[in-house]
């Protein structure tokens, strides 16, 4: 999900979620989505649970920048935090996290290892200049 300016509405979001199996959003988008959809849970974990219940989602992926990420599904939930890095450029970190997570979910990777690895890759991208830096070989393999 990429909520940009006012280029979205409840109907578009509900139609999209009805056709989706995975939702990836960040900690700034979740409260907006919760308000728009009337999610009543008081915390992020409850809101993620409500999204899984209301829609036919298999996974909800919530990123929180330097505070890490959570991947929650019907069969499990895992969270991880990246090691601190000297941030040079955050552009591309969310996309890198999403790519690793999508590949890992499709490959059936163990969830805790997958989320930790996706956080490492995103942190590495933040430590480099540019949105698509070359990755070291140890970050190119799924856990």
Can you describe what's shown?
There is one protein chain. This protein is α+β, with helices and mostly antiparallel strands and 143 residues long. The protein is built from five helices and four strands. The protein has one domain (10-139): UDP-N-acetylmuramoyl-L-alanine:D-glutamate ligase (3-Layer(aba) Sandwich), CATH 3.40.1190. The chain has helices at residues 10-18, 29-37, 44-54, 93-107, 111-126, and strands at 22-26, 59-63, 69-73, 76-80. It has a four-stranded mixed β-sheet, with helices on both faces. The two termini are 25 Å apart.
Can you identify the CATH class? Alpha Beta
Counting helices, strands and paired strands, the structural category is alpha+beta
The radius of gyration over CA amounts to: 15 Å
What is the number of helices? 5
Q: In short, what is this structure?
A:
The protein is 42% helix and 14% strand.
Task: Give a quick set of tags describing it.
single chain, 143 residues, alpha+beta, UDP-N-acetylmuramoyl-L-alanine:D-glutamate ligase, 4-stranded mixed beta sheet, 5 helices, 14% strand, globular
Task: Draw up the topology in text.
Layout: H1 10-18, E1 22-26, H2 29-37, H3 44-54, E2 59-63, E3 69-73, E4 76-80, H4 93-107, H5 111-126
Helix pairs in contact: 4-5
